[in-house]
Amino acid sequence: MAFPDPSRQPGFYAAWYLLISAGFALLAVRGMLRGHRRRLTVFRWIVSAGFLLLAALFLLPWWRAQRLRKRQPPR
What we know:
This protein is mainly alpha-helical. The protein has one domain. The protein is built from two helices and no strands. It has helices at 10-34, 38-71. The protein is elongated and about 60 Å long. The termini are far apart. The mean pLDDT is 87.
């Protein structure tokens, strides 16, 4: 089975990365509330920010393309 092309499903991959980012953010909040080591909590926040950046890399071009399609007059 071939790996699907991410450029054909940017919304799916953006949502996937957003959910992973939210999961790591929740783990970081849980670590803060339970008093885990600060280094581990900071690492989780950094990983969460990285996945959020990946989601933005997929969402921004997709969002711009959708916006341009709406601006073009119908043929």
